[in-house]
Amino acid sequence: MSLSLLLSLLTWQLVNSRSRAMAMAQTITAELRESENRFRVMANSAPVLIWLSGLNKLCYWFNKTWLDFTGRSIEQETGNGWLEAVHPNDLDFCLNHYTQNFEKRLPFTMEYRLRRHDGEYRWLLDNGIPRYSDKGEFLGYIGSCIDITENRQIRIDLQNSNADLSRFAEISAHHLMEPTRRFSSFTQRLRHSLSAYPDALHNQDINASLTYLEQDAERLLGLVRDIQLYVTADQARDKPGHVNAEVAAKSAVSALADQIAAAGAIVSVGCLPNAYIDLPRLTELFRLFLDNALRHGRPTNPELNLQIEIGGVSEPDVNRYYVRDNGSGIDAEYQQRVFEIFERLNYRDNPTGTGIGLSIARRIVTSCRGKIWIDSSGHDGTAVVFELPNIKGNKHDG
What pTM value is reported for the model? Predict the structure, then answer.
């Protein structure tokens, strides 16, 4: 009797547990369907093109905005069907970029052309993000696209316009260089010719006029040269790669040896990590910073020698470099202004300076996706610091 009662109780518990499990499963299924329906309603009303892909990399759903854009049915688009509307010149890039990032489970962004329902190809900016379940299981990707055709054309027009302006400035500077050199040369010849006339050569007004002419000639030469450097600062002068930063720094020191000696400066070059850039522009960066320190880095105590230290450190994603002097420092309010073109804080002390040097440096660094800034506090000297990414970037221009 007891055994029969126990079996009946176990049977009742099993049946009851099964009923509860089935009820729970139905509730969860209903909630999932409701959640999915809410997502589809929201996605179909969104002003962007949305797609979903599964574990097999194939797309299985597109929102109404996508379908209205292409004029195709969801049956035509699913799987790899959507690739039929991708521009033939963008197809390999689009598929490879998607596949490579999918296999690594990485978010990605890409630009490609997709045929609209009227037959016109439009540029899309596609952002793909991996999807995961609440348990952290990878489910596939969700992507959203916006039409960037007009913005892209504006960007191309601006790039072409900037290229034309840069070319004009480069040619103008080139044609200005020769008459500027002649101006300097003839000024020197004039002083030499006047040596035959002692009375004229010792005349204060004549000497002062010649000195002004020589200073202006020197400044004009520097100005034209710096304009040429500025307009070409974003262009690599050699094949970019991981170059020896110590070689670049020492080359800059060697190029300014006479100026360093005249200033009585002491320059040291520390251990520098390699930089991803072309060697000529890295050398130019160190030369610009050295020249700036030699011109402006005077110690507050005139009995002290100007000391300039070139150093650097390596971080996981960037390499950081600095050129530090023991001068009087730069107030915080001026630390951004010094990078503006033609900006000089002490013109009278440096009449031959052009005010373009640090602008050239900023243009070089930003063209390499780097950062540059001034580190200075009180009278503890000034450090010009710049960072360069230590990995090569990838770009698809279409």
Answer: 0.54
